[in-house]
Amino acid sequence: MVDAASAILGQVAAAESSGGLAVAGSDTVPVNLKVNGVIRSLQVEPRMTLAQVLRGPLGLTGTKVACNRGACSACTLWLDRLPVCSCMILAVDVGDRLVTTIEGLADGDKLHPVQAAFIEHDAMQCGFCTPGLVMSCAALIERSSDPSSDEVTAAISGHLCRCGTYQNVVAATLAAAKVRNR
Ligand code: FES
Ligand code: FES
Q1: Could you tell me if the CB of 67 is within 6 A of ligand 2?
Q2: CATH of 113-181 given 1.10.510.10, 1.10.150.120, 3.90.1140.10, 1.10.3810.10
Q3: pTM score > 0.90 for this model?
Q4: Could you tell which of 73, 121, 130 is best to mutate to test the pocket of ligand 2, judged by most ligand atoms within 8 Å of the CB?
Q5: Distance of alpha carbon 62 from alpha carbon 132, whole angstroms
Q6: pLDDT of residue 20
């Protein structure tokens, strides 16, 4: 640890003496991410979040980043089928957990019931928050076959939608649960 700290301080001092900006810890490391059923092997900087890696090197831009600090839930995806904020997770910490993004939610050409219900119930306006909301609502109907309005409201309580689509999101999710139960 002391050696690593000394090395970083040495890099900083060298960068400063040469008049450049100091970037410590930028060396890349290998990761194998299981994304939407496919293993993606790549090199990432240890400081990169899962959201950054998905949207950058992996080109999966369906996951949106708004606040980038865990406050809005726009970046929600599933880790082992549980919704999480991907801007708060380092890619190097994902390990063997299964990553499911909005791109992996549909079954081929068949939309997930929540995706179809969002369209049917007009549950988006600008759509920026929509992928994250869909992932949270889809996770809810995975774990609760007949959720109440209050349960949907609780499931989306961390999501900030500037367009104020909340009522239609709740209606869409309740409808999607009914479709799922048929
Ligand atoms: S972008 Fe991740 S919580 Fe806002
Ligand atoms: S639909 Fe625009 S921010 Fe939610």
Answers
A1: no
A2: 1.10.150.120
A3: no
A4: 130
A5: 9
A6: 55
